[in-house]
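assembly run, all chains below
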Amino acid sequence: MSVTSQRLHAVRLIAGRELRSTLMGIGIYIVMAVSFLLSSYFINGYLYTIVHNGALAMPSPLMVPLFVAVFVGALYLGLLSSLAISRERDQGTLEVLFYGPVDSFSYVVGKFVEQMAVFGVFLLFDLVFFAIMALITNFGFNWQLIALLLISFFVAASVVAFGIFLSSLTRSSRASVILFVAIQVSFIAFFYLYQSLMKIPDKELSTTMIYVRQALDYMRRGIEWISPLDYLNRGAAAVASGGFTGFLIALIEAVIYGIILLAAAIFFFNRRGVRK
Amino acid sequence: MIETRGLTKRFGELTAVDNLNLHVEKGEIYGFLGPNGAGKTTTIMMILGLLRPTSGSVKLFGKDLSEDYFGIRKRLGVMSEYQYTYDEMTAREYLTFFARLYEVENANRRVQEVLERVGLRDRQDELIGGYSKGMKQKLGLARVLLHDPEVLILDEPTNSLDPYGVREVRDILLEEHERGRTLLISSHLLSEIERTCTRVGIMNKGRLLAENTMDELRRRLTQEIEIRVDLESAPDGIVDLLSQIPSVVSVTAAPTPSEGAAVSLIIKAKPGAERRAEIARALSNAGALVIGMRTQEMNLEEVFVTITENNISLLTEEGVA
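ok done. output:
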């Protein structure tokens, strides 16, 4: 049996065990319910507009609710992924796995595959939910929704890879969660700070503040490539604009980002080791 | 089967394992002993490739782990001191998962076999989370046996077990030994090691102080042997007579004679296989009737304490360490 087939065998088993464990838990269903509630809130708002104004000027009204559902799912998976390695290291079960025919590649990829399978389940429920919503509301289930579902799968891969990467850096579950949340909050805080500064006209800013704003602009360009949720934003924007090239570029970017982070996760995982 | 050369691990200023040369031969039960913090677990982790050595090398089955990572792992069965399990699984599910991971043929049948062997067959469908420590320990052993490994590396295998469980596990390990399996057992239960191991390695402060059979370790560490002789009758001057034997260091009468004996003597003599014969001959010539004679030997606990705390030079002078 070649090394590749040994690894794939381990990947399949690790992913299968984890998937079963996640699907048997209640967490995923709670998050799904929350995402559908949030989506319903938006759909309800559109229906309210139609009832009171008689019309809704949107080409695809289910786009935003679907984006919200996908965003919530991806964020949850990112958080789950940030625990992927550190939780098992905390519990000591990681060490037991590595007594056997498992290496860092098969373990990290197994975790990744499992998370993606969970997201696949998520998308399946999204598909059913939004198909039903389209029928009930008559908003229509068009190709843009399918494209958004498709690209969200690849973008979720980058979010999962980001979570696993963070998990490979930390020693405990708590540290992983704190790091994941802190990074996401920092990105969001930075985004709002940047947006606020950009709204202020140049003439109202001092020279120093203009330099600060310029520096923030450079930082924003960097963060766009680091923050996994920015890939989701770009993907959704590409779908909304309707251009196939933009869609393809967003998809390829997400895939490359995911591969780089997974490779980094394997590297740091090797350095950290499997012991508690 | 297991060989380390110059294995060293440093954590900053601390040298956890220092230039360790360990040899575990095929088919032996090797007892790995040492006080807490001696470096035993660090050594095992390096042997398993789970901790990178600062220097030195490890060979398993004559190969470096990187030469055949998956192949070597499948030939090892490893059990740590604490049993880390997936508590949300049942014992059957847990073992089936590992049977598939190791690609065990007829996985379901094999799972039932090992569950039967460790006495958990009746509890196989219960969640592991509800198991006692002792049951988890047995489940850990079942996992180790599942793929019929050639080498078993066990860290405190009788930890958390009651005396009955200890005996069960000991019997299983001895059966594995009889089947030609090689065992490396790290334990602080010296009596367990003494009962099961063919060879012993004693580690302290990162160094392997001694590596030999129990008999050989005892022989090298014993400066004096103690022989208790029970006599039905003791002629006058017997103590002086025995004291004149060159190899005898001292002779004293035991405060309480053994049952059926008129007098019991405690004789301290220089070590040697011929001492008992010399003493018996002298007593016989003096007309004493010997009804019992036994030599007190060091047990492993005494050997361990002697090596780790007191008399390391006895070994190093003879080039053991």
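Residues 229 and 293 of chain B are 4 Å apart (CA to CA).

The longest strand of chain B covers residues 14-24.

not gonna interpret more than that til we talk
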